[in-house]
Fold:
Amino acid sequence: MCEGFGLITLYLNIKSLTLLLVYQIIFLYNMNTNILHLFIIVLLYSCSAAEAIDEPTDENDGKVPEQVIGTFSHPGILFNFEDLFRIKEQAGYNEEPWMLGYSILEKNTDYNYSVSGPYEIVEQTETQRTRNALSADSQMAYHCALMWIITENSKYAEKAVEILNAWSYTLKSIQGEGDMLMASWYGFNLINAAEILRYTYSKWNYEDIKQSEIMFQEVFYGLIKDWKRGRAGNWDTAITKMHLAIGVYLDDRTIFDRAIAFYKSQIHESNGTLKYNIYETGQNCESARDQTHAQMGLGGLAESCEVAWKQGIDLYSFMDNRLLKGFEYTAKYNLWYDDLPPFISNVYGDVISDIDRGEFQPIYEMVYNHYFNRKKVDDSEIEYTMKVVEAVRAKGGESFSALHLGLGSLMYNIVKK
Structure:
């Protein structure tokens, strides 16, 4: 890629595991000069966008299916080239909902940001100094990467690279209470920034990119590779999305395939698999705990689905759109409707919790975009998720957090004007 790179529109329509040749594009762009830079890139894009594997059965469950994915598409964690081109275009729309998302992003991104870290060890302590530093820096890196795409101002890319390099050459371990959550939440911000920059910003040095791979492999994956497992489902849904992201970034099919198998597992060893995080009624395994943790679990599942989708695997439809059923249940309750299916008791309690009721996490736009915009499901099937999206937009648009990347009013809205 050239630094004043001109985004490439990449349209992939791949329905088999056969390696396909995909040719691509021309983009003309004038970057602070009167000279037009012409890019004609012809790619042998051997991209086997895999079909979704069959649902596990009792006989083969727990085994990692061989080569779920062939060759990875890049960029390909939350966004591909087509997405980036769309986001850049839609950020210029002077109307809702796109301008809402862009306004939030712009206000929370600063290429003059002073990096809070890095530290060799990140841990949850009384002062939270190292944890807060990684949280803040990871979010800024991601936001700067997005603003680089939208504005083509290289100062944003430079800041994102500065943050990534600082942590890549310094971070040795993440420790203590919440270690896997920190690795999954903050790591997901960092790795999305890295994936975007790696394929759009030529001034990120090869040696530094390889160092980032070492960090994600040894520090992040080394910690989360076996999941947390147990009752707190939101841990493992977060870990799964990070597994998938690492698999893509490292071009590691084994890591990626393990995450797909875990998401689909029918064995009850974790409440972080789809089957045991969302019950058949749509109830979340943490609905009796509080509504924030219930939504944290849902958000991790949704982000996992989006990463898989970018690689040609449809987790969204798994178990008869179980993810949508979970979103509808939680959205309905948090919109103050009480006519829900009979509650299923579990370790967290016998009744649904009203703690944090009505407080929406930044997770709904992505799911709404997939089922309503992409798949064209009937309004009745996505009624309450749609109502949440409308309510969030009415209050200024979907925000973001360290836990969920959000900003969906712009990032996940494929509808054109």
About this structure: Confidence is low (pLDDT under 50) at residues 4-60. The longest strand covers residues 26-29.
